[in-house]
Amino acid sequence: MESKQLLSDDPAILKKHFVHHLNRVYYGKRYLYSNLPKLIDRSSFKRLQQGIKEVWEDVGRQIERIEKIYELIKAEPDKENCVPIIAVFEDAFDPQDYHTEDCMLNDIDTILYLQLLEHVNITSYRMLKMLAKRLDHTEVQQLLQECYDESKEDDHLFQMITDEYVGRS
Fold it and tell me: Running DSSP on this structure, what letter comes out for residue 2?
């Protein structure tokens, strides 16, 4: 039985795949950046509002880094094929499906979606770092590492907020 090649050694194919996934993260982040202020207004727990504002600032920095990555690899952002990831982001900001009169439940839903999105980002950044390494883009790897670290910290932040908010007596 013939074994399949696990990862292409063709830099053009790797770059195309890298840019495809970078586009998904980039447009997801842009959607997140423009919509996070709505979640701040909808949240009732002060610490959650502060956490969302902190994440909003992090997302702004991540967008700047991703734009720098596009420059470094000489690529342009392309929104084509970003629909699935944007749909996940849109769902997180559409309160029609889950909005209740209970502020705590609405805040819990907000935290759940934000952590879900952070987990998508953490996984995406991890994979993009590996591809950047294969493409020998050291500076790109560093920028992605910074984005990855921020996403990990934001995930931890929301876990602490959940513990404080839901776990309180």
Answer: P
Can you spell out the DSSP letters for 120-150? HHHHHHHHHHHHHHHTT-HHHHHHHHHHHHH
> Residue 5 gets which letter from DSSP?
P
pLDDT in tens, 81-139: 666 566 666 666 665 555 567 788 888 888 988 998 899 999 999 999 999 999 999 99
Between CA 19 and CA 76 the distance in angstroms is 9
Q: What is the three-state SS of 18-42?
A: HHHHHHHHHHHHHHHHHHHHHHHHH
Q: Is 140 left (phi over 0), alpha (psi -120 to 50) or beta?
A: alpha
The count of other CB atoms within 10 Å of the CB of residue 148 is 20
Q: Which of 10, 22, 54 lies closest to 124, judged by CA?
A: 22
Token match 């207004």: residue?
Answer: 41
For residue 43, report the phi and psi dihedrals to the nearest 5 degrees.
-80, 145
Nearest to 8 by CA among 117, 97, 131: 131
